[in-house]
């Protein structure tokens, strides 16, 4: 027997994170009259008998929402028109990418003329890079600068990238071979660094402005309800996502600005919008709830995982997996299982921190399925824009159609938040995060089926057949239309279906993933966990990049169809693997809310290290 095993005590064990307890019902270890951890007098019996409602939001949340609105306007107002900017050549008679007024009914704005493969590669890299850099932003915020300072400094970096992008589209740059492309790549790198570091910190910062506890409240109607932080955070992120999509509609103006006035003007407007980001951050500096950086938390997290994994490890992966899934897997890292005075010196945490790490690992496991969801989403970013270019535009810019995605989300979020979700709660239907994410996978697959069928009919209707219908032009036979686009006889608005369906899928899956990352991550690691959830988009971009050979119009039918099947299979697997987490939802969310308890061998120095508090610059107890 090892020395470590000899040191362990065997007292009766309290219910832990690893116990599958349904906290909406009393069980062998809980009573209906027991108080839910972290709540203000709410019992387990109340959880199952009273309706749950959301609380009001503090004013600081709305300031952070505006920051995200302006940042997303600037990002989507540029990225959404990259496809035509890179793919299509300068229109006839143009030095800026603008289309002559006489050609606007069928003409498409363009500049670099590098074709679909180059456009796809650069756009995919942009998506990959902007979702890799959140890892850096999360580490800087959680260990060094804190979220507020990280967002402020990153916004200045991002602003510099936008200035470079405007320069890339200047007529003088477009007239010189290679200059615009080089500046574009540089701007993608700089904007990606700044925007990525902002992304990993804005999401947790907006929700941590809410500091309320679960409590009971009597409505004017006489109904007693539970004011639930979980429902409040769900609502916060619904409206946060609405702000993202309000900002992304900036691409509507960008499409027309590029077509009518050229790309330097189209890129200048988002740059001016972005100037507001650091200004708003400075204006709200004194009222934000700020979580200070922890310093060594990542190192300690890896130590906890290493101590728990050491006795479970085997060269046989099946045995390792079986050991990892055992109820007492995390016990070797808990200081409470050691005798007083025998706690290993490398343990600088308490049992609560081990529970937080366990919860973090569980959340990160959920996110690992998301790359296959984002593969479906990635199609609305460019490939469906190329699909639209092969249809009758009737004066509509082809890259304008993708704005139906954010518009549909903006319209649907109030419906979900005010009608659908409250209706389900009143009926006692637990539409939990795991179920919502699964629904998102199913709807995303349906969107890809729609796109596949549509692309099939475009191939039939196009005068040039299924091979590159977006490049089909009238023959040079001396007619006035010679060389102009010759689209399939299908109205471009038919392509709206996938954009709307993907929007619904985002409400189910994407918003819930943000909510899940915030509620399941320890307060000291929220930025890192949020960045890990966003990293899955980068992984999806890498997978998509590996599929460059099939990201051509002639293979779109099979590409879309394959993504649909993958989304349904992966989504179903996800639900089977994680459905048990539904029963532990409140238990997982309660970890870290209660007062920390001391443990054998704990010193005052260790206590101060494991329990940093969020710094409240100004009280947010009063609701606006």
UniProtKB/TrEMBL annotation:
<dbReference type="Pfam" id="PF00854">
    <property type="entry name" value="PTR2"/>
</dbReference>
<feature type="region of interest" description="Disordered">
    <location>
        <begin position="1"/>
        <end position="35"/>
    </location>
</feature>
<feature type="transmembrane region" description="Helical">
    <location>
        <begin position="264"/>
        <end position="284"/>
    </location>
</feature>
<dbReference type="GO" id="GO:0022857">
    <property type="term" value="F:transmembrane transporter activity"/>
</dbReference>
<feature type="compositionally biased region" description="Basic and acidic residues">
    <location>
        <begin position="1"/>
        <end position="10"/>
    </location>
</feature>
<feature type="transmembrane region" description="Helical">
    <location>
        <begin position="400"/>
        <end position="424"/>
    </location>
</feature>
<feature type="transmembrane region" description="Helical">
    <location>
        <begin position="236"/>
        <end position="258"/>
    </location>
</feature>
<protein>
    <submittedName>
        <fullName>Peptide transporter PTR2B</fullName>
    </submittedName>
</protein>
<feature type="transmembrane region" description="Helical">
    <location>
        <begin position="556"/>
        <end position="578"/>
    </location>
</feature>
<dbReference type="GO" id="GO:0006857">
    <property type="term" value="P:oligopeptide transport"/>
</dbReference>
<feature type="transmembrane region" description="Helical">
    <location>
        <begin position="499"/>
        <end position="518"/>
    </location>
</feature>
<feature type="compositionally biased region" description="Basic and acidic residues">
    <location>
        <begin position="612"/>
        <end position="624"/>
    </location>
</feature>
<keyword id="KW-0472">Membrane</keyword>
<dbReference type="InterPro" id="IPR018456">
    <property type="entry name" value="PTR2_symporter_CS"/>
</dbReference>
<keyword id="KW-1133">Transmembrane helix</keyword>
<dbReference type="InterPro" id="IPR036259">
    <property type="entry name" value="MFS_trans_sf"/>
</dbReference>
<comment type="similarity">
    <text>Belongs to the major facilitator superfamily. Proton-dependent oligopeptide transporter (POT/PTR) (TC 2.A.17) family.</text>
</comment>
<keyword id="KW-0812">Transmembrane</keyword>
<feature type="transmembrane region" description="Helical">
    <location>
        <begin position="436"/>
        <end position="458"/>
    </location>
</feature>
<dbReference type="InterPro" id="IPR000109">
    <property type="entry name" value="POT_fam"/>
</dbReference>
<feature type="compositionally biased region" description="Polar residues">
    <location>
        <begin position="19"/>
        <end position="32"/>
    </location>
</feature>
<dbReference type="GO" id="GO:0016020">
    <property type="term" value="C:membrane"/>
</dbReference>
<feature type="transmembrane region" description="Helical">
    <location>
        <begin position="152"/>
        <end position="173"/>
    </location>
</feature>
<feature type="transmembrane region" description="Helical">
    <location>
        <begin position="125"/>
        <end position="145"/>
    </location>
</feature>
<feature type="region of interest" description="Disordered">
    <location>
        <begin position="597"/>
        <end position="624"/>
    </location>
</feature>
<feature type="transmembrane region" description="Helical">
    <location>
        <begin position="361"/>
        <end position="380"/>
    </location>
</feature>
<feature type="transmembrane region" description="Helical">
    <location>
        <begin position="179"/>
        <end position="198"/>
    </location>
</feature>
<feature type="transmembrane region" description="Helical">
    <location>
        <begin position="530"/>
        <end position="550"/>
    </location>
</feature>
């Amino acid at each position: 027997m090892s020395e470590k095993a000899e040191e362990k005590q065997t007292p009766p064990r309290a219910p832990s994170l690893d116990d599958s307890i349904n906290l909406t019902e009393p069980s062998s270890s809980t009573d209906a009259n027991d108080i839910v951890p972290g709540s203000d007098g709410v019992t387990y019996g109340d959880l199952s008998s009273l309706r749950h409602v959301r609380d009001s939001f503090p004013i600081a949340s709305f300031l952070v929402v505006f920051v995200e609105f302006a940042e997303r306007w600037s990002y989507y107002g540029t990225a959404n028109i990259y496809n035509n900017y890179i793919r299509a050549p300068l229109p006839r008679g143009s030095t800026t990418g603008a289309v002559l007024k006489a050609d606007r009914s069928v003409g498409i704005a363009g500049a670099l003329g590098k074709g679909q493969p180059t456009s796809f590669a650069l756009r995919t890299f942009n998506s990959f890079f902007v979702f890799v850099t959140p890892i850096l932003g999360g580490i800087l915020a959680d260990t060094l600068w804190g979220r507020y300072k990280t967002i402020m400094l990153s916004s200045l970096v991002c602003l510099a990238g936008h200035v470079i992008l405007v320069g890339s589209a200047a007529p003088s740059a477009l007239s010189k071979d290679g200059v615009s492309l080089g500046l574009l790549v540089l701007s993608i790198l700089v904007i990606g660094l700044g925007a990525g570091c902002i992304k990993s910190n804005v999401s947790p910062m907006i929700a941590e402005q809410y500091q309320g506890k679960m409590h009971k409240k009597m409505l004017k109607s006489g109904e007693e309800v539970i004011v639930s932080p979980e429902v409040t955070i769900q609502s916060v992120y619904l409206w946060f996502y609405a702000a993202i999509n309000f900002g992304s509609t900036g691409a509507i103006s960008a499409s027309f600005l590029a077509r009518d006035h050229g790309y330097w003007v189209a890129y200048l407007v988002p740059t001016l919008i972005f100037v507001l980001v650091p200004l708003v951050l400075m204006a709200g500096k004194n009222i934000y709830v700020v979580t200070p950086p922890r310093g060594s938390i990542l190192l300690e997290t890896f130590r906890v995982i290493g101590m728990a994994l050491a006795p479970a490890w085997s060269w046989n992966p099946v045995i390792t997996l079986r050991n990892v899934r055992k109820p007492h897997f995390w016990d070797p890292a808990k200081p409470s299982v050691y005798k007083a005075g025998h706690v290993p010196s490398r343990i600088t945490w308490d049992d609560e921190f081990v529970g937080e790490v366990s919860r973090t690992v569980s959340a990160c496991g959920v996110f690992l399925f998301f790359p296959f969801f984002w593969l479906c989403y990635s199609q609305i970013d460019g490939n469906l824009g190329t699909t639209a270019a092969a249809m009758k535009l009737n004066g509509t810019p082809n890259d304008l159609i993708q704005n139906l995605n954010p518009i549909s989300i903006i319209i649907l979020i109030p419906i979900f938040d005010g009608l659908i979700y409250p209706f389900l709660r009143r009926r006692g239907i637990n539409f939990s995060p795991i179920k919502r994410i699964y629904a998102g996978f199913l709807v995303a697959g349906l969107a890809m089926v729609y796109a596949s069928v549509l692309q099939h009919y475009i191939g039939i209707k196009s005068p040039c057949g299924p091979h590159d219908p977006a490049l089909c032009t009238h023959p040079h036979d001396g007619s006035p239309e010679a060389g102009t686009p010759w689209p399939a006889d299908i109205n471009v608005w038919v392509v709206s279906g996938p954009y709307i369906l993907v929007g619904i899928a985002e409400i189910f899956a994407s918003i819930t993933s943000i909510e899940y990352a915030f509620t399941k991550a320890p307060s000291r690691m929220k930025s890192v966990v949020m960045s890990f959830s966003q990293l899955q988009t980068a992984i999806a971009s890498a997978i998509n990049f590996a599929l460059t050979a099939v990201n051509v119009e002639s293979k779109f039918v099979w590409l879309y169809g394959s993504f649909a099947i993958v989304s349904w299979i992966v989504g179903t697997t996800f639900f089977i693997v994680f459905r048990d987490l539904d029963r532990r939802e409140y238990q997982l969310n309660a970890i870290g809310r209660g007062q920390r308890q001391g443990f054998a061998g704990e010193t005052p120095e260790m206590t101060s290290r494991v329990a940093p508090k969020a710094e409240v610059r100004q009280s947010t107890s009063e609701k606006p």
